Amino acid sequence: MDYKSVDDVQSKLTGAGYIPSREIATVVFLAAATQKPVLVEGPAGVGKTELAKAIARSLGRELIRLQCYEGLDEAKALYEWEYAKQLLYTQMVKDRLNDIISSAQTLTQAVDQIAEQEDAFFSDRFIQHRPLLQAISSEKPVVLLVDEVDKSDPEFEAFLLELLSDFQVSIPELGTRKAVQIPFVLLTSNNYRDMSDALKRRCVHLYIDYPARDTEISIVRLKIPGIDEKLCETLVDAIRKIRKLDLKKNPSIAETIDWAQSLIALQINELTPDVVSETLNIICKYQIDMEKVRKNINRILQ
Amino acid sequence: MVKLIQQFVSCCRAAGMRVSTSEVLDSLNQMQLINPTDEQQFCSLLRSNFAKSIRDVQHFDRLYHLFFHEMRMDTADIKQAASYTEQIKNAADILKKMPHDNPIYDAVIDFLQGNPMALLQEMRRIQTEEEPAMLRFNLGPLGNRLNVTLQINKAASAAQALVEDHYAKTDSVAGRELAIYFEERAAAARSMLAYEPRPGESGTRKTKTEEQKLRGLGEKSFSSFTPQEVEEMREAIDKLVRKLKNIVSRRYAIRNRGSIDVKKTLRASAKYNGVPVEIKYRRKAKRKSRIVTLCDVSGSVWAAARFMLNLLYALQDCFDKVNSFVFIDHLSEVTDIFEENEINEAIRLVLEKSDVDYNASTDYGETLRNFKKNHMELLTKKTTLIIVGDGRTNYMNPEDAILGQMRERCRRVIWLNPEQENLWGSGDSEIKSYMPHCHEVRQCRNVNQLFTFIEELVL
């Protein structure tokens, strides 16, 4: 067990540059202690992927990431045979093959003798490891991030089940592979569609929302240590008000940080309507959103 | 602790949450790892194990508050109540023996006694129950509630009378405590009854389509089209259809790339004496989705619905299968009409269809009941359900629970509402009750909004 207590998780994650709420810390601790996957949900940009990276950093583990999309299949997620290499090897060892079967009296014997050598061609040497196989065959424990699992097909989701419940996968030619070290698994979802009950049952669920005001302030200060305290506070307050405006795309934490960074680059120490209006394209990604924010600019800066 | 959690689990289940045994075991195991007296940890632990989607989280929070704060007495109260357990039990027994003919009365007495299970189940039944087919007003649920209110009042006054009878003469502390206890429980029962479950909406995507593409016509609402504009619309639709078909077919062309399928290539090469003449690829056809549409064809909604049907059928190749239904006061399948006839002809036929009564008033509840009874098997994990309607139920039972059941069976539920957004929820509009069950609710008043929607659906 890598984390000792909930407090330990909190301090280690903070050390890794991620400020978790009490709930996040509790869930991460429980998942680590019981070796269960975590299903993370929440609006875009609240730091779901960042959480996985921070966990990897805080545990000193490698992060293996699998990005899901429609049409993702086992060949891209788990393993694939390197056919080209296999064919090449067959060509190169052709003479050797002749030697092997030269002693054979009948055709059946020859086939039998070749069959004995089959393992040589279906071995680890010719397997291309994809993220999932990498994660479970790694000698050191890793953090496995299955990103946007809701974008994948239901078939792939069903396939994930075997991995998540037993930490093993079946490769028909080689048999079942068990995990050398159990990885810490995180799945993220944007709620594009509902996940199956079976998958949900195997995971611990975590819903991350936009952080509370104080948490967000400390996140900005952690990422940009030199920022003026007062500027930081007004900035976060403004962002929180902008999120309430019902925009097409709400500014996320990443955008808060970008905004703060650009203000510092511009050497601006105070938020005025003009400043906000000029730097708006950093926080708003749509023209309509910008217009909406401009209209409400005075209310935001109050 | 185990018992407490078990009780909570049965409450969750009674309230319609799916909590499996393995999840309960997990949470009990995990309980040993944390400090259960820290409420934040305790709550997070239960939440992460029991509520596994955003919709469930809100449901869970409500139940958690109900169970651990509202329904339970404070620790001090528990001690006090414990000293009166005997009396409370005796009183409840006497109350139960009083002549009555209503099973809910028993449930209320149990509740007063500190056992909320039966009453919670009854509440759940009222909130989700479907009406028997003949009744067509939301009086059903209201009537049920009235019944429970009456029973609570009856039990509360009976309890009060009982306490007065037994303790008034002596004016003991115990008597007063007991009276207060019963009053509090009765108040809790009443507040529970008044609560209306509203699963949160944060899980539903609300799309705002404000960009302008087709100026003029694009922004004009469907209901104000002149016949000439309808013709213009047709052309616009044709253009869009051609564009989308192009994009989709390009995607099919692309599938020829990808890695070589060695097995298939070798098998094919057997024809040519082992020379791989035909290269086989691991191609994968793009998944086609199934579409089920339910269209309200009454009044103004029809204007939007016909254009949507027009588009959907023009793009039929892009989907596996399109099943369409129209409804006013009941459901009627029109898939055949659209498959066999040219689109304008089909729309005319739908309007003449004998089993659609254009003078009836819209009834969403009946429609959903019809669908559940006859067509539920159409919904699979590949199906996208599109409902076009304003959600105006004429004050009849909306049956939004059935929409919830439908959501569980299909991939996505999308509701297109041709009404202005600021009118949603006003008057008899039940769109707010339906909204929590949809993956997406869109305003669909004009061509631009419709086009954006169709593009997203196809691509």
Task: Give the oligomer, counting copies of the same chain as homo and different chains as hetero.
Answer: heterodimer
Please provide the count of β strands of chain A: 9
Please bin the fraction of helical residues of chain B. 55-70%
**Helix-and-strand structural type of chain A:** alpha/beta
Give the fraction of residues assigned to helices of chain A.
40-55%
Kindly report how far apart the N and C termini of chain B lie.
52 Å
Strand order of the biggest β-sheet of chain B = 1-7-6-5-2-3-4
Give the strand order, joined by hyphens, for the main sheet of chain A: 2-5-8-1-9
Structural class of chain B: alpha/beta
Note poorly predicted spans of chain A.
Answer: none
In N-to-C order, the SSE pattern of chain A is: HHEHEHEHHHHEHEHEEEHEHHHHHH
Dominant shape of chain A: elongated
What can be said about the biggest beta sheet of chain B?
Answer: 7 strands, mixed
Number of strand elements of chain B: 7
Beta content of chain A: 5-15%
Q: Main sheet of chain A, how many strands, which sense, barrel? A: 5 strands, parallel
Radius of gyration of chain A: 26 Å
The dominant shape of chain B is: extended
Number of helices of chain B: 19
User: Strand-and-helix sequence of chain B, N→C?
Assistant: HHHHHHHHHHEHHEHEEHHHEHEHEH
Low-confidence sequence ranges of chain B: 199-203, 207-215
